[in-house]
Automatic annotation (TrEMBL):
Pathway: Sulfur metabolism; hydrogen sulfide biosynthesis; sulfite from sulfate
Organism from which the protein derives: Kocuria flava
Protein name: Adenosine 5'-phosphosulfate reductase
GO CC terms in record: cytoplasm
Any one Gene Ontology molecular-function term assigned to this protein's record: phosphoadenylyl-sulfate reductase (thioredoxin) activity
Function summary: Catalyzes the formation of sulfite from adenosine 5'-phosphosulfate (APS) using thioredoxin as an electron donor.
EC number: 1.8.4.10
Keywords, comma-separated and alphabetical: Cytoplasm, Iron, Iron-sulfur, Metal-binding, Oxidoreductase
Coiled coil regions in record: none
Main location: cytoplasm
The protein's required cofactors: [4Fe-4S] cluster
Binding positions for [4Fe-4S] cluster per the UniProt entry: C138, C139, C221, C224
A Pfam family reported for this protein in Swiss-Prot or TrEMBL: PAPS_reduct
Family: Belongs to the PAPS reductase family. CysH subfamily.
Length: 251
């Protein structure tokens, strides 16, 4: 028996839910803009809060396929959840292989989010290797714009943002209203470390991108990602040598 999908709730309602979630999970910043050192909800509590307050059909998980910990955790409470993979056309073969393994092993639905232009079309219309001449524009075309369009069909999205990744993410909240995309954003793994992530993956047999063990703790497009050296933050290998630290999705 088919059912008619319900409409997305309006922005005011979603803002209210984000505020309620921040209070319930005690993830709001304090008066000085700092993340509380203690008293924050667990990853499971954050995921369960979403499962209790949102239609599963309106929940998305963003995953770069560096690992599959977040999709695995969310799928425990929201089986079949949509997992958005930004298929930029520039991924490492290992990343595509991880995506395929994750789609096969977990109770999720992988959704390839595609740019309007193929790489060949972009080269022909804008210029060859835009990632080298204007990486911000390349990210906008191949990642930010497609994601914004994809998220327009959801009320809430999960991301794997962690506070230990770089200085730009130090104060990432567990839940907030996403002003850029107009929906609730939940970062249930903000307090995890890279070691926590890898340990959980190994313990639970969840796929990890092979590049993670080759010096790539943060994996993006192949032309714009290099291995990191000891002592560098996990995202130091992204857009190395350029005045760029984020693609723009999480700013």
């Amino acid at each position: 028996m088919s059912t008619t999908p319900t409409a997305l709730r309006d922005e005011r309602t979603l803002r209210g839910l984000a505020a309620e979630g921040a209070t319930a999970l005690r993830a709001a910043l304090d008066a000085e803009g700092r993340v509380p050192a203690a008293g924050e909800a667990s990853t499971e509590e954050a995921i369960r809060w979403v499962a209790e307050h949102f239609d599963p059909a309106k929940v998305a998980v963003a995953c770069s396929m560096a690992d599959a910990v977040l999709p695995a955790l969310v799928a425990e409470h929201l089986p079949g959840v949509d997992v958005l993979f930004l298929e930029t056309g520039y991924h490492f073969p290992e990343t595509i292989g991880t995506r395929d393994a994750v789609a096969h092993m977990l109770d999720i639905t992988v959704v390839d989010v595609l740019p309007e232009l193929t790489v060949a079309e972009q080269d022909a219309t804008i210029g060859t290797d835009l990632f080298a001449t204007d990486p911000a524009r390349c990210c906008a075309i191949r990642k930010m714009d497609p994601l914004k369009q994809a998220l327009s069909g959801y009320e809430v999205w999960f991301t794997g943002v962690r506070r230990d990744e770089s200085w730009t993410r130090t104060n990432a909240p567990m839940v907030a209203f996403d002003e850029t995309h107009g929906l609730v954003k939940v970062n249930p793994m903000v307090r995890w470390s890279l070691d926590d992530l890898l340990g959980w993956s190994q313990e639970h047999g969840v796929p990890v991108n092979p590049l993670m063990s080759e010096g790539y703790p943060s994996i993006g497009c192949a032309p714009c990602t290099r291995p990191v050296t000891p002592g560098e933050d996990p995202r130091a290998g992204r857009w190395a040598g350029k005045d760029k630290t984020e693609c723009g999705i999480h700013l």
